[in-house]
Amino acid sequence: MVTxxxxxxxxxxxxxxxxxxxxxxxxxxxxxVFVIATNGDQGxxxxxKDELSKxxxxxxxxxxxxxxVFDIEFLxxxxxxxxFEFKDKIKLIQIIRKYKPFTVFTHSRSDQHPDHKIIHxxxxxxxxxASGPWFKEADGEPHLVENILxxxxxxxxxxxxxxxDITPYIDKKLDALDKHQSQVQxxxxxxxxxxxxxxxGAMVNGKxxxxxxxVLRLKSY
Length: 221
Description:
By secondary structure, the protein is α/β, with parallel strands linked by helices. The protein is about 40% helix and about 20% strand.
């Protein structure tokens, strides 16, 4: 079975950027794994950070299940990243070696959100390090990731290289986003997400809805 690894900075990033693609791959019998880097504890000023992190973890699990994903890894970093540490890289290397993904999806290199930029760099560093006999602190056998794709969240990709028709999966994508109630109740970004999907569909296929990706590595897809 083909395994795909999706890495997101915050508990809702994967659903925003590629929830439709996840649903499509699941429908094709592929295995999808989520890695969520931060606990999202800065996502609201209405509840305490500790309480919010618990809420957002629960929401992330429910959203993933809605898409058909049951393997979720939490790095449990604090929201509002300034950098990542060596131990964070080791943990992600171990996850990559554990699941041995064919394709890794992460934030695009053009994403200007500070947290997303850091997790983009952590993703690429860890993928490279996981491929060779280095870093004795990390368990598992070396694994080379064949393909790396970057997805868009709040900064649309200026020049994308590939696209996925998600027309049959938009309702599932939006249902998954709706599980993040701590976020969408104050800011209904589902409308923006659907609007971007409609724009991408019109530009790519002339109809329908789509998600686009930046190709960071493509050996076989």
